[in-house]
Amino acid sequence: MGLRDRLFALTYDRMMAGTERAGLADIRRTLLAAAAGDVLEIGAGTGHNLAHYRPAVRALTLTEPDPSMLRRLQRAATHARCPTTVLRAPAEDLPFDDATFDTVVCTLVLCGVEDQPRAVREIRRVLKPNGRLLIVEHVRSDDERLARKQDRVNWLGRLVTRCDCNRPTCRTLQRGGFATDGLLASQLPKSPAFVRPLVIGAAIPADAHAGSVPARLRTRETTNERR
Question: Tell me, which fold does domain 3-217 have in CATH?
Answer without folding.
Answer: Rossmann fold (3.40.50)
